[in-house]
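The step that takes the researchers longest sounds almost clerical: writing a folded protein down as plain text. Below is the pair of lines this work produces for a single protein:

——
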Amino acid sequence: MKNNIKKLRKDVGLRQEDMAKSLGVTRQTINAIENEKYSPSLELAFAIAELFELKIEEIFYLNNKGGKGNEEK
């Protein structure tokens, strides 16, 4: 699953440590999610979306060729 968390986090000036603390996870978890080495639980994905005041599909998307989605630019 792809995501744009790193860009969103940097756009608002949020450190991984601060994001992790507000979500009740470790900085390593945020790092792994940002680097697409770990897919968050549905509960955590919704918490991340709420943190950025976005819909979950604006943050997370599948990397399907030819499919509708948020392609990286």
